[in-house]
Write a structure and sequence with these properties.
Length: about 280
């Protein structure tokens, strides 16, 4: 496994592999790897085969954090991440520095102007501009045939898919399923922030989705979104440690909000547990 710091070297290596006829699978991460990330790496390997090349990026991207968010305390453990990647048979880990990605006079950003205005985009106004910018840069540097994203960040994956389409990147996006803890909590690096009480309360995200899904599937007809939202917010608020940010119901392809919710609709929510903000989503 190669550990690459330089963007130019990463791009040269990726182009060399392409010239050799190797298919490249790419998994972008912000490090602090867990089983969810490892499942994406395995999916990338499956997509490119044993003769292909899998690249994992480990980079905490500052432009997707707001001014009062957790950039400085975001968990970092590159040594452990490299060991896990090596064990999974990754061919290269790209771990650049901020100055290599964003020089002092950096002034070019990639902005998606429709799908990014909802849900996470409302709560974190500059977030998706940072995501699309760094992903576009990483695509140029790693030259992948396929890129694997996790369904836990569903809105993000749909925005990247739109960027791939609209900017004509020759890349296939694979959406891999959310990996959960035994109690249903979606795996996330931010789970490390939770104290024991908050960790126990965090199961309310998945509990809320499951309750709404059960109700929708048993109803036999579409239900009013606003009534389902009120019920979900009440359930979340019943946990003293939990504070809801949003609950949304939307079309899984367009992300357009739904007035009535039936099977096949998508649900997403964001919840604060203390200062930690967690998200989750699922098809109903």
């Amino acid at each position: 496994m190669q550990t690459v710091r330089s963007p130019k070297r990463m791009q040269r290596l990726a182009l060399q592999w392409r010239e050799q006829g190797r298919r490249i699978g790419f998994v972008p991460t912000m490090g602090c790897l867990h089983e969810g990330h490892l499942s994406l790496i395995r999916r990338a390997r499956k997509a490119v085969g044993p003769e292909g090349r899998v690249i994992v990026s480990v980079y905490v991207n500052p432009t997707q954090f707001g001014p009062r968010e957790d950039l400085d305390k975001y968990p970092r453990n590159l040594r452990r991440d490299l060991a896990l990647c090596r064990k999974e048979g990754v061919d290269a880990v790209f771990a650049p520095s901020d100055k290599d990605i964003y020089p002092p006079d950096y002034s070019v950003y990639v902005t998606e102007e429709k799908l990014s205005q909802k849900m996470e985009g409302r709560s974190r106004p500059t977030h998706f501009r940072g995501v699309t910018t760094i992903v576009a840069k990483l695509f140029n540097l790693t030259q992948p045939h396929v890129a694997v994203f996790g369904a836990k960040d569903y809105q993000q994956a749909m925005i990247v898919r739109r960027m791939i389409r609209d900017l004509h990147f020759p890349i296939r996006l694979i959406l891999a399923p959310t990996i959960r803890e035994p109690d249903g909590l979606a795996m996330s690096s931010r789970n490390n922030y939770l104290d024991p009480k908050q960790r126990a309360a965090a199961t309310v995200l998945w509990e809320t989705i499951r309750r709404v899904r059960r109700k929708v599937r048993q109803a036999g007809k579409p239900l009013p979104a606003e009534a389902l939202r009120r019920e979900a917010l009440e359930l979340i608020s019943s946990r003293p440690e939990a504070r809801p940010d949003y609950v949304e119901f939307f079309d899984p392809n367009t992300l357009e909000p739904l007035q009535r919710v039936g099977p096949g609709a998508h649900m997403a929510l964001a919840v604060f547990l203390g200062e930690t903000r967690l998200i989750d989503n699922a098809r109903l």
